[in-house]
């Protein structure tokens, strides 16, 4: 009982210490205010009651108010970044507009990150003004690439107006923590047309007419996500001080603790750190859903899905059995952005280019680059193992379960090892951590890649495409021969 009281008191003190930081107080207060405004926005400014113009204006003004309250005059950088990129989109030609916009937007973000870190406050890690700029960078570049690729569903193929553009970048639902979304999806939400195509796609029969006329309620999903936020925050506040990642590089800890226990501790420390991100991203998702944004059709049982812009799948993260599976379910919208703007367009070493872009986008701390450079090796090694080893375990369910358990443990260790510099931030502690592990996973990755070569995903896709074409050619040839025999007969 005494131990339980001590843990409760420690958690309570940690919570007040957490709120003692004015920046974090502002962030949490603004998100709570945004949640209330989202409910009001959905009910009283419903598309059936007001025009898209009014919805754009209110969403933009509320977004600027929250940014100013939370970040002060630093929030002017949001306007400058958006204004510069909009000018590029208006005056640059369609052929190269997306490239110029990408360079200008990402360059301005990196400039602000360098200034914040190396000029003002090195080590200010959370809730800084460059956080929203990272999401705005994703939105701006996504829009530029959509326009260039001809994927815009805009009337007369026109550019969005300045109001629509600012509303998309700086609306109150996503100004603080995102997530990124497609401009087409946001525009459909503002105009009230986001439900129609998904009703038609997922409903059938008599239920089709009913579902087309009724609008699904996000209430249950919002409540569920808020409960997840509360649980995540409680876990984080209870464990963050008990299991600090920095202890893994403490000399006394390293010298007095067996290596296998160091591995276990690192996993538990990273496990205790993740609920902070679960809280922030799930809360942001709940705010968007409360405003009516995020509907993604219906489940098989007829219940509405509100995961169109969700940023994570917690269960899939914690039970991931591969490095790729973990990354695909962590910060989902950022992964999709990296895939659209880099991986699918880069002709040389797309995996390396994607990880480097992710490092540049995250910031200028050296630990970020160490993490993502390590991630390249981890991804290549995991791909080689999955390609060469996994088929041997698919003969029976029992063998596959053994494989899944082993790969789950390996994935969690690999993720913890890779992400440690991301948390430690600087070069010295990061290299100290890797030295305490004797760079063992780096060396293992190099060995696996050399021993188990694997074809690139692009080459595999090309061979599959060529194989389908050959099959189709053979089928057509056989069909023509049969037709000729029929005619002869």
Automatic annotation (TrEMBL):
Pfam families to which the protein is assigned, alphabetical: MBOAT (PF03062)
GO MF annotation terms: acyltransferase activity
Biased composition (Basic and acidic residues): 461-471
Membrane topology: Multi-pass membrane protein
TM regions (residue ranges): 12-41, 53-79, 100-119, 367-385, 405-424, 436-454
Comp. bias regions, Polar residues: 472-483
Assigned keywords, A-Z: Acyltransferase, Endoplasmic reticulum, Membrane, Transferase, Transmembrane, Transmembrane helix
InterPro entries the record matches: LPLAT_7/PORCN-like, MBOAT_fam
Chain positions covered by the region annotation Disordered: 201-220, 461-489
Gene Ontology biological process terms, A to Z: lipid modification
Compartmental location: Endoplasmic reticulum membrane
KW Acyltransferase (keyword) present: yes
Lyase as UniProt keyword: no
Listed GO CC annotations: endoplasmic reticulum membrane
Domain of life where this protein originates: Eukaryota
PANTHER family: LYSOPHOSPHOLIPID ACYLTRANSFERASE 2, PORCUPINE
UniProt-recorded name of the protein: Uncharacterized protein
């Amino acid at each position: 009982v005494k131990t339980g009281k001590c843990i409760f008191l420690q958690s309570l003190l940690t919570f007040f210490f957490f709120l003692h930081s004015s920046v974090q107080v502002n962030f949490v207060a603004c998100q709570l205010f945004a949640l209330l405004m989202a409910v009001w926005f959905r009910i009283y400014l419903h598309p059936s009651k007001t025009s898209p113009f009014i919805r754009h204006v209110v969403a933009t003004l509320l977004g600027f108010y929250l940014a100013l309250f939370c970040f002060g005059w630093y929030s002017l950088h949001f306007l400058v970044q958006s204004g510069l990129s909009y000018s590029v989109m208006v005056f640059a030609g369609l052929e190269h507009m997306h490239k110029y916009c990408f360079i200008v937007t990402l360059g301005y973000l990196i400039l602000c990150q360098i200034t914040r870190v190396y000029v003002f406050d090195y080590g200010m890690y959370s809730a800084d003004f460059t956080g929203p700029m990272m999401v705005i960078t994703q939105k701006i570049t996504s829009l530029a690439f959509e326009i260039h690729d001809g994927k815009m569903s805009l009337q007369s193929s026109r550019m969005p107006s300045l109001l629509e553009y600012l509303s998309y970048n700086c609306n109150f639902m996503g100004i603080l923590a995102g997530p990124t979304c497609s401009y087409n999806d946001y525009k459909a939400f503002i105009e009230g047309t986001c439900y129609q195509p998904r009703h038609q796609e997922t409903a059938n029969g008599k239920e089709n007419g009913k579902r087309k006329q009724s609008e699904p309620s996000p209430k249950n999903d919002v409540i569920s996500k808020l409960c997840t936020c509360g649980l995540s925050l409680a876990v984080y506040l209870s464990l963050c001080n008990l299991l600090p990642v920095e202890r893994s590089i403490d000399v006394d800890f390293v010298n007095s603790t067996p290596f296998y226990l160091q591995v276990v501790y690192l996993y538990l420390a990273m496990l205790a750190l993740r609920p902070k991100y679960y809280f922030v991203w799930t809360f942001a998702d709940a705010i968007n859903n409360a405003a009516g944004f995020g509907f993604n059709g219906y489940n098989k049982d007829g219940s509405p899905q509100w995961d169109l812009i969700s940023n994570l799948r917690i269960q899939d993260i914690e039970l991931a059995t591969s490095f790729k599976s973990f990354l695909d379910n962590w910060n989902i919208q950022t992964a999709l952005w990296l895939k659209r703007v880099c991986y699918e367009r880069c002709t040389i070493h797309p995996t390396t280019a994607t990880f480097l872009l992710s490092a540049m986008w995250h910031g200028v701390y050296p630990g970020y680059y160490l993490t993502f450079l390590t991630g390249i090796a981890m991804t290549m090694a995991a791909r080689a193992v999955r390609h060469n080893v996994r088929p041997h375990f698919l003969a029976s369910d029992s063998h596959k379960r053994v494989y899944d358990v082993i790969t789950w443990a390996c994935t969690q260790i690999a993720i913890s090892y890779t992400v440690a510099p991301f948390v430690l931030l600087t070069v010295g502690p990061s290299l100290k951590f890797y030295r305490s592990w004797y760079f063992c996973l780096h060396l293992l990755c190099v060995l696996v890649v050399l021993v188990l070569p694997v074809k690139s995903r692009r080459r595999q896709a090309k061979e599959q495409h060529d194989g389908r074409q050959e099959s189709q050619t053979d089928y057509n040839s056989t069909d023509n021969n049969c037709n000729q025999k029929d005619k002869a007969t």
